TrEMBL record:
Domain called CAAX prenyl protease 2/Lysostaphin resistance protein A-like: residue spans: 132-223
Residues spanning the membrane: 20-41, 53-74, 95-117, 123-141, 162-181, 187-207, 219-242, 262-282
Enzyme superclass (EC): hydrolase
Keywords from the named record: Hydrolase, Membrane, Transmembrane, Transmembrane helix
Entry keyword annotation includes Membrane: yes
EC number: 3.4.-.-
Family affiliation: Belongs to the UPF0177 family.
Source organism: Streptococcus caledonicus
One MF annotation (Gene Ontology) recorded for this entry: hydrolase activity
Full protein name: CPBP family intramembrane glutamic endopeptidase
Length: 297
């Protein structure tokens, strides 16, 4: 299955929305389902005492359900039009986890070498391991939901009508905007979020499915907040295996926004983006793909 096949499948949808209307619909689906999900999480926390972070992450399942109901029942979009395939699901998702962990660890290592981050303690206990296993699933739900919304639905919807570069820009901008209310937001985190949006769209193009980028996203968040005790996009994550202390300027250490608030994260992502752009658009196969995508837009 190639990306051209995904777009052809997406064109079978009942509606193909314009570049400005599609994000509005996305925001509406996000706000309505997120409100319901957070209410569920709060009620469940009060009744059971389960940790609020875990419940909030699992509440993203309400958003995923809303997107799938909209695309399948209203738009009549096939699964392939969302980049969702059963074949090699675990292999693709595991590849994404490996890549995402590597990207995050690269950032942390560079920050440590530059003296912006220091390890203060290492924690290990059966309860922490059990919590981590639950969080692996919770981060996977949260991250796959964001990828389903921003790449599986919005990016592919735009690509049926517009050139690929415009679809990448709008979907990356949308991904940035939906995090606009997060704590600790400043210029560098905004650049980082937009860079990840571009990286995610290019990974969707490279691997021709939703699973690899969902795995990258999940591993990045999980390692950032549950292996290392960084905030994730400005959100506190609770106990982790490795506690760290931040030193120097926020633009290097990440400050209250976490690794994503560091210029190191932006640079590491730009290196990966550069490789993806070269692989997709400057090799002979990539040039053919770009020509086909633009000719169909």
């Amino acid at each position: 299955m190639t990306y051209e096949n995904i777009i052809e499948a997406k064109k079978e949808s009942r509606y193909n929305f314009s570049w400005w209307l599609a994000p509005i619909i996305g925001f509406a689906l996000l706000l309505i389902s997120q409100t319901i999900g957070l209410l569920w999480a709060e009620i469940t926390r009060l009744l059971t005492g389960i940790e609020s972070q875990i419940l909030e992450l699992f509440s993203f399942a309400f958003i995923a359900s809303a997107i799938l109901l909209w695309t399948r029942l209203v738009e009549k979009s096939p699964w392939a039009g969302l980049g969702i395939f059963r074949k090699n699901f675990w292999k693709q998702f595991s590849l994404g986890w490996f890549l995402g962990a590597g990207l995050l660890l690269s950032c942390v290592l560079l920050m440590m070498v530059l003296g912006a981050v220091k390890i203060t303690s290492v924690n290990f206990s059966p309860s922490l391991v059990g919590r981590f296993l639950v969080l692996i699933l919770a981060w996977s739900v949260q991250s796959t939901t964001e990828e389903l919304l921003c790449r599986g639905w919005l990016f592919t919807s735009l690509s049926t009508r517009y050139p690929i570069y415009w679809s990448i820009f709008v979907s990356a901008f949308f991904f940035t905007i939906i995090h606009i209310g997060n704590d600790g937001l400043s210029l560098i985190p905004l650049l980082d979020l937009f860079s990840f949006g571009v990286l995610a769209a290019l990974c969707f193009l490279k691997f021709n499915n939703l699973w690899v980028i969902s795995g990258i996203h999940a591993a990045w968040n999980c390692f950032q907040g549950s292996v290392f005790a960084f905030p994730v996009s400005g959100n506190s994550t609770g106990a982790a295996f490795v506690n760290v202390s931040l030193h120097g300027k926020n633009w290097l250490s990440g400050g209250p926004f976490g690794v994503e608030g560091s210029l190191i994260s932006v640079l590491v992502q730009l290196i990966f983006i550069s490789w993806l752009v070269f692989d997709l658009f400057y090799k002979k196969q990539g040039e053919t793909k770009l020509h086909l995508l633009n000719s169909k837009s």
